[in-house]
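User: I'm putting together notes for a lab meeting next week and I want to include a structural view of one of the chains we've been expressing. I don't have a solved structure, so I'd like a prediction I can at least talk through. The sequence is below, exactly as it appears in our construct file.
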Amino acid sequence: QVQLVESGGGLVQPGGSLRLSCAASGWSLDLYTIGWFRQAPGKEREGVSCFSKRDGSTYYADSVKGRFTIDRDNSANTVYLQMSSLEPEDTAVYYCAAEHIWRRPYTVQAMCTVALPYLDIWGQGTMVTVSS
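Assistant: Thanks for the context. Below is the predicted structure for the 132-residue chain, given as structure tokens.
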């Protein structure tokens, strides 16, 4: 199955930007629905943005709409999360996760919301800290 490695986290001031990367190996991401999730200290993990290449659909949590963009580089087998206008509330460990489209064909909304407890392909996470 696919393996995922996140990178790109760091310390950024409020209002700043970061671009996270989720590099996949083992299988093409064409066969997976991909999601970005985050877990803030003392809080549950939540879906941020999910993408399906099968139909090109995307989903964004209300808290990040208009500020975050999910996209992918097919040649690099990598999915990105471009984050702008960052707020202290965005501070969290960010994870990417994948689900095979033949195993569980989630919609992007389902992937980012109800599917979270059932996902078992995760990266190791990358820390994002928004602070002045």
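A couple of points you could mention at the meeting. The first helix runs from residue 108 to 112. Residues 49 and 122 are 15 Å apart (CA to CA).

User: Perfect, that's what I needed.
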